[in-house]
Design goal:
It contains seven helices and five strands, in the order ββαβααββαααα. It is of the alpha+beta class and 172 residues long. It has a single domain, classed as Hect, E3 ligase catalytic domain. Strand 4 and strand 5 form a beta hairpin. The two termini are 17 Å apart.
């Protein structure tokens, strides 16, 4: 997935596809390319989203990092935390994903963020957990196979220990 933030193209994996081995090979190759560029001090010409950079560096990712590549979702999640009346929004602990298969057809699936999440209402008392689960799903769980392939490619070229010397801004 690519999006534009402040006129900068940002890249981050997207969960909209049912990925096969071939697609994951592209993420591995991208990671390998990034690792080589880092090792040789080259500029790649594209930017990764802040959470992705932090994941590569083994640094913690927070909700505020989401603002850098998806400001609207970030604002909506923060709004939930700061306001009462979440019960009236009809939220539950699930997300709907539209997946595209290898043959190009689409299907919509419901993914529970917690066990039986589609049956658990979002309320004021559990809104912090809702925001945390939704954030974790969007940043990690929904794209875990893509992120793992990317990391495998980077770490094949540059050991994770060497990356500890960088921060996300330096890596970008």
């Amino acid at each position: 997935m690519s999006c534009r933030v402040n006129d900068t193209a940002i890249s981050y994996p997207h969960s909209c596809h049912i990925l096969g081995d071939n697609r994951l090979a592209h993420f591995f190759a991208t990671g390998h390319f990034l690792g080589r560029a880092l090792l040789e001090g080259n500029v790649t010409g594209f930017h990764l989203a802040l959470p992705q950079l932090k994941i590569i560096l083994g640094q913690p990712v927070s909700l505020s990092d989401r603002e850098f590549f998806d400001p609207e979702t970030y604002r909506n999640l923060v709004w939930l935390l700061e306001h009462d009346g979440v019960d009236a929004l009809g939220l539950d602990f699930s997300v709907w994903e539209e997946l595209t298969t290898a043959d190009g057809s689409t299907q919509t699936v419901v993914v529970d963020l917690i066990p039986n999440g589609r049956d658990v209402e979002g309320t004021d008392p559990n809104k912090a957990e809702f925001v945390d689960r939704k954030f974790r799903y969007m940043v990690f769980e929904s794209v875990s196979s893509q992120l793992n392939a990317l990391l495998k490619g980077v770490y094949e070229v540059v050991p994770p220990e060497m990356l500890m010397l960088f921060d996300a801004e330096e890596l970008d």
